[in-house]
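Internal ticket - ligand job 409, pyridoxal-5'-phosphate:
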Amino acid sequence: MSDSSIPPITHAPDAGGHFGRFGGKFAAETLMQPLAELEEAFFAAWQDPEFHRQRCDLLKNYVGRPTPLYHATNLSREVGGAQIWLKREDLTHTGAHKINNTIGQGLLAKRMGKPRVIAETGAGQHGVATATVAAMFGLKCDVYMGREDTVRQAPNVYRMKLLGANVIPVDSGTATLKDALNDALRDWVASCEDTFYIIGTVAGPHPYPLMVRQFHAVIGEEARAQMLAQAGRLPDVAIACVGGGSNAMGLLHPLRDDDVRLIAVEAAGLGLNSGAHAASLAAGRAGILHGNLTYLLEDLEGQIQGTHSISAGLDYPGVGPELAYMYEQGRLELAAADDDEALDAFHRLTLSEGIIPALESSHALAAAMRMAAEMAPEEIVLVNLSGRGDKDMESVMRREQAGFSEGTP
Ligand SMILES: *Cc1c(COP(=O)(O)O)cnc(C)c1O
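stdout (structure tokens):
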């Protein structure tokens, strides 16, 4: 973001937060007032040049934006076919796109005079991004995390503690992300007077999906301008992985009025027919999850299904409502990558370009490589490299020592 002019909000949902039949505000009566207060504060902030000035300043000098756009010539040559270009969100402070959103919501919390923030986290990445801005803004921070996840993601729990946050283990349900989300919402019902709830993706009740999209749109705005400057044209295809959909909406929203194919890559886990995946759009159906109507994974009794992915960040049984809408409108195409394909892409980028990607981003890369191979050399595939792979060293190492992987060099 090079200046602090007020970016217009295009493709907004209706006043009730609906993107077509999706989205909305399905929340307890007690949350309607804090949600209305948040909506008012968000729109007021968005119209205030001072808010954008502060946000741009932090994105530049704290987060490290603009992030580079990199033509991966070695990988492109190896794959054959179209050019593969990477939007380097892995180079942001804390190593993933999530901080774009927590900076925005943290600033809003300050504006609204809330001294405390809460968040839910699965892999711990959103918890770390929230704890980071809470430390910087001087806010008290409590992070809800499934007990199961606190064990699997111990280094991130320690990181949050170092940053001054209090991690609250959740024992209900399956003791994972969806249970942490429920507990965070319950906390907010009781504490909204002094507490701001920082949601980590383009989900939750209105205005969260819109707000989080707007805070991440800087990814696609930068990438669009960089493509024109560096390649002289827009990409033919733009690809991002989807957990809840925030890095995807961030990259794809600013390209949706262009002649660019938009692709969301879901985690196929052990395979789309295995029952062990996180492909809510490809294999789910419409229902209500975490305050909005969207595509989700549930069993025949309507219980939310357990999900599986090699990347903890894609392990969410739903998807942001706007992605469900764009998919049904035919504006968003789906792709999937399973655990082995993601791991293969992880190694290929690392060896060919010296860039170790997050396992989440490796799903987008796997689909991009597959598509590029079928395309012409003058065509361009733009991939959102949503994060770096440092956090995944241990899971990759453990998996390969166990002799699980196939197709790795
Ligand atoms: C959390 C995370 C994701 C998935 O979240 P979205 O909201 O779908 O973007 C993807 N990549 C990385 C690196 C993450 O940390």
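Auto-summary: The mean pLDDT is 95. The pocket of pyridoxal-5'-phosphate is lined by residues 96, 98, 125, 201, 241-248, 313-314, 358, 360-361, 386-387 (CB under 6 Å).
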